[in-house]
């Protein structure tokens, strides 16, 4: 098996990204220093793709961890594939690059490898991540996402972002971008919740037809300490069918859940701050699931979302009201 071939996915703009990334979103209770240490451990293990966002409030720590590893000679900046995201209070076209520059300053980088629109629902600009009125209701903004995309294209042209894409877009919203007049660059990827209980098969098929990579967050289920996670959802990694497949391959359930995504052409984000699991989750390139395994695991789909932020649900662009 050609391991190097497995470790690079071609994007529609001619650049490449590693198919396995390290996710850094964490519950607010987790100290930021823990994220910093986890990123350093991940680099030591072999991860080169790191996913974060302005909204995660940890880019300073991630930047520091990567800069330390560069200073130590463990990696060079060009070895790292770093993703950030423009937050929804910065979706007005004139604010997109401002938000990117804020992230770059925190990171200590001159560019990001991938910049995404974090969520397709604009909120009122300002310092608050979730602006609310006096009654506690979220304050939406009116922004044409096609105009936001043009600002993203300028970020690519300026060299501040090597590639650009979207996150949490449904098919209808992707089509809106793809069909806009004078489209200069297609999104290279759409990062969405995707796991064995919510396998996004229709959206994956559509993305493949448009040469857009689907990137899976929540690929291992989710951390139930997060405020926006469905507490009633079943625990993915305890699924008996998944565990039976893992036992046959002498692998962990997490390794099989990640390998499933890689074999169907999905870029997967693995997230753990535990040293043992960081190492285990990277060991997915030296085994293969059989066609029967893939069919069995595909059958676990239950259309269950772990992530659902009801704050946005009343907005017409809320992507989860229309999954097509």
What can you tell me about this protein's structure?
- With 324 residues, the chain is of the alpha/beta class.
- Helices cover 35% and strands 14% of the residues.
- The protein contains eleven helices and ten strands.
- The protein has an eight-stranded parallel barrel, surrounded by five helices.
- Helix 2 runs parallel beside helix 3, helix 3 packs across helix 4 and helix 4 crosses helix 5.
- The relative contact order is 0.14.
Could you list some keywords that capture this structure?
11 helices, alpha/beta, 324 residues, eight-stranded parallel β-barrel, two-stranded antiparallel ribbon, disordered N terminus, globular
Question: Can you summarize this structure?
Answer:
The chain is α/β, with parallel strands linked by helices. Helix content is 35%, strand content 14%. The strands form two sheets. Strands 3-4-5-6-7-8-9-10 form an eight-stranded parallel β-barrel, surrounded by five helices. Strands 1-2 form a two-stranded antiparallel sheet.
Layout of helices and strands:
Layout: H1 3-6, E1 9-10, E2 16-17, E3 20-23, H2 32-45, E4 49-51, H3 59-71, E5 81-86, H4 93-107, E6 112-117, H5 145-158, E7 161-167, H6 171-178, E8 189-193, H7 201-209, E9 213-217, H8 240-249, H9 253-263, E10 267-270, H10 275-282, H11 291-298
Parallel strand pairs: 3-4, 3-10, 4-5, 5-6, 6-7, 7-8, 8-9, 9-10
Antiparallel strand pairs: 1-2
Helix pairs in contact: 2-3, 2-10, 3-4, 4-5, 8-9
């Amino acid at each position: 098996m050609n391991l190097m071939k497995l470790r690079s996915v071609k994007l529609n703009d001619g650049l490449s990204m590693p198919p396995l990334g390290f996710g850094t979103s964490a519950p607010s209770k987790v100290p930021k220093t823990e994220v910093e240490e986890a990123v350093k451990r991940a680099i030591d293990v072999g991860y080169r793709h790191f996913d974060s966002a302005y909204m995660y409030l940890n880019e300073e720590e991630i930047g520091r961890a990567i800069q330390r590893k560069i200073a130590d000679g463990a990696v060079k900046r060009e070895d790292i594939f770093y993703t950030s995201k423009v937050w929804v209070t910065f979706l007005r076209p004139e604010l997109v690059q401002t938000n990117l520059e804020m992230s770059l300053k925190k990171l200590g980088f001159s560019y990001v490898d991938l910049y995404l629109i974090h969520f397709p629902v604009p909120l009122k600009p300002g310092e608050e991540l979730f602006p609310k009125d006096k009654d506690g209701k979220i304050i939406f903004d009116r922004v044409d996402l096609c105009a936001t995309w043009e600002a993203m294209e300028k970020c690519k042209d300026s060299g501040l972002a090597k590639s650009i894409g979207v996150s949490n877009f449904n098919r209808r919203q992707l089509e809106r971008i793809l069909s806009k007049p004078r489209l200069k660059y297609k999104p290279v990827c759409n990062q969405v919740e995707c796991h064995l209980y919510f396998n996004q098969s229709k959206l994956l098929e559509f993305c493949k037809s448009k040469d857009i990579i689907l990137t899976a967050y929540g690929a291992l289920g989710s951390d139930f300490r997060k405020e926006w996670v469905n507490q009633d959802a079943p625990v993915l990694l305890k699924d008996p069918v998944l565990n039976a497949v893992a036992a046959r391959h002498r692998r962990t359930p997490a390794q099989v859940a990640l390998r499933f995504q890689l074999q169907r052409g999905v870029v997967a984000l693995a997230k753990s701050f535990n040293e043992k699991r960081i190492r285990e989750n990277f060991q997915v390139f030296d085994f293969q699931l059989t066609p029967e395994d893939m069919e069995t695991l595909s059958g676990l789909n239950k259309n269950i979302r772990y992530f659902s932020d009801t704050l946005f649900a009343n907005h017409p662009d809320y992507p989860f009201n229309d999954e097509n």
